[in-house]
Amino acid sequence: MSDYQKKGFLTEDFRLFHLRSSGVTRPEFHYHEFYKVLLLVSGSGSYTVEGCRYGVQSGDVVLVGSHQVHRPEFEAGAVYERIILYLSPEFLRRASGPNCDLTECFRGEGGHVLRPGEAERKQFFALAASLERELGEEDYGQRILCAGAVLELLVRIGRLLRRTDAPQPG
Predict the structure, then answer these.
(1) What is the pLDDT of residue 25?
(2) pTM reported for the whole predicted model
């Protein structure tokens, strides 16, 4: 791990970013102490996690566990839009239960990239959009609704990963 740079920090349970870029995206390999879910809104390229390189395209979900070395690669000129969700290990530990370990999604047993079908993709992006909207509010119960959207997204990803026919890129 000492050969790679630790990037980013997280002081809350979760944080959402919605980013869009069109330049070359090829940062150095790095890791985080938190977990990361990336929903690729647009663009195509590759994502390397723990030495495995995956081709990614719009609609894909990338799952990166705590301390897993990774790097995205997107070429210049291509629009690379993504929704990134950082999750604290403590939040996942508290939210997990005896028959639902939320860190299971990030172990990479079936790979680190998931290519959901149309129905699942719409559901994932709708949950992310709802979370993004709610994070912009300061209304009664805002944090509870945000946590609920995050947890529903993780449970639905976990359920899809457990299906034997879950589509994954080669």
Answers:
(1) 66
(2) 0.89
Angle (CA) 10 97 13, round 5°: 15
- Token look-up 């990479």 returns 108
Token pair listed for 148? 């609920």
CB count within 10 Å of CB 144 equals: 10
Whole-number Å distance between alpha carbons of 137 and 135: 5
pLDDT digits (tens, 9 = 90+) for 56-86: 999 999 999 999 999 998 877 778 899 999 9
More confident residue, 36 or 8: 36
CB of 25 within 8 A of CB of 45?
yes
- Measure the N-to-C terminal CA separation of the chain; round to a whole number of Å: 27
HEC string for the chain: CCCCEECCCCCCCEEEEEEEECCCECCCCEECCCEEEEEEEECEEEEEECCEEEEEECCCEEEECCCCCEEEEECCCCCEEEEEEEECHHHHHHHCECCECHHHHHCCECECEECCCHHHHHHHHHHHHHHHHHHCCCCCCHHHHHHHHHHHHHHHHHHHHHCCCCCCCC
The percent of residues in the chain predicted with pLDDT above 90, rounded, is 71
